[in-house]
Structure formats: structure tokens, C-alpha cells
Amino acid sequence: MKNKIYIYGASGHGLVVANIAKKIGYSDIILIDDGDNPYPSFNEIKYNNSIDIALGIGDNRTREKLFNKVKEYGFNIVTLIEPTAVIADSVTIGEGTVIMAGVIINPLAKIGKGVILNSSSVIEHENTIEDFVHISPGVALSGNVTIGRATHIGVGTSIIQGISIGKNSIVGAGSVVIRDIGSNSIAYGNPCRVIRENSE
């Protein structure tokens, strides 16, 4: 394994991603960030594409934009899996996904690229998690659930079996989802209901 990696994003989420990189064997971890801070920006390192990179950005849309940008410059966007995660052999995981401590992924689940599976989330059998989704800490997805591209599932949400949630939607923290939710929706509650359109 290469021992050097860039983490794109120096916020709290980026620090968690950096810690995973350290645990799996990277010894030289360099945070980069385009904000007003002391970290080098992407422009300063964009031609160093022999070094691995991981995305430390929690926001789905921003993460997708940065994913595409670093791909254009030829970087290898690594998938990082915290060692305490439990993942069945038949699971497929896309490029640039980050899987955090205590996550469980059961057989035949399909995880897209650029996904975040946050701490102690449970992804049951035959789930489909599309690209650039963020599954927050403590979320539980029962079997055969589908989560559409760039959707955010809030902390502690539970979703019963067979549910489909469309793309670019937000499900609020602590929700209990017992019905399908369409794309571009903001929904929350127990039972979870669509409150308004997600127009962003």
C-alpha cells in the first residue's frame, strides 16, 4: 500500500476520514481544503496525482463536484473502510466510498461511489445505496431498501423493508420511514411524511 494520502476537506468529517486512513495503514496524511485556512488548496496539489486521495466532505453535492474534479486530474480516489466495519463477502462497494466505525453491511447490498456510511449504521441484505448518498450515524435500513442518488438520511432514522427513497431527498433525523418517498423531497417524522420539495 502507498503510505501517503490526501484528504480533501479539513472539517470534522475530514478528520474522521483521516483517522480511518491512519488505521488502515497510511502514515503520511495530508489534509487539503479550499477554504480560508492554513491547509494547502487543491490547486496547490492538483498535479501530484500519483498520491491517493479521499474525500472528507459530508455534503453530497459538494462531494460529487469534488469527486468529478479530482477524477479529471487523474487521481485515484480510494475507498476507506474502518477496520471495525462488518461487511458480507457478496457486498459491492463503489469508488471513493467511506465506511466508518461499527457499520454493518449484509449480503448482496450494493453501495455506489462516493457514498458515506456513517458510524454504526446498518445496511441490511439486498439494499441498493446509489452514488453520493450520505447515511448518517445510527441509521437502520431493513432488507431490500433503495436509496436514490445524493439523498441524505438523517441520524437515527429507521427504514422498514422494501422501501424506496428517490434521489436528492433529505430524510430528517429520527424518522421512521414506512412508505416510499419520491425524489427531491424533504421528509421527516414518525411516521415519516413529505413536508416540502427539496428545491436546492
- Contiguous uncertain segments of 5+ residues: none
Number of strands: 22
The CATH top-level class label of the largest domain: Mainly Beta
Per the CATH scheme, the topology name of the largest domain is UDP N-Acetylglucosamine Acyltransferase, domain 1
Distance between the termini: 39 Å
Full CATH superfamily name of the largest domain: Hexapeptide repeat proteins
> If you compute it from the alpha carbons, what radius of gyration comes out, rounded to the nearest whole angstrom?
17 Å
**Sheet having the most strands:** 8 strands, mixed
Structure description:
The protein is an alpha/beta fold and 200 residues long. The protein folds into two domains: 4-72, Rossmann fold (3-Layer(aba) Sandwich); 82-193, 3 Solenoid (UDP N-Acetylglucosamine Acyltransferase, domain 1), CATH 2.160.10. Helix content is 14%, strand content 28%. The strands form four sheets. Strands 4-7-10-13-16-19-21-22 form an eight-stranded mixed sheet, covered by helices on one side. It has a six-stranded parallel sheet with strand order 5-8-11-14-17-20, with no helix packed on it. A five-stranded parallel sheet has the order 6-9-12-15-18, with no helix packed on it. A hairpin with a 4-residue loop joins strand 21 (185-188) and strand 22 (193-197). The longest helix is centred in the first third of the chain and has 13 residues, at 60-72. The radius of gyration is 17 Å and the shape is globular. The N and C termini lie far apart (39 Å). The model has no long low-confidence stretch (mean pLDDT 96).
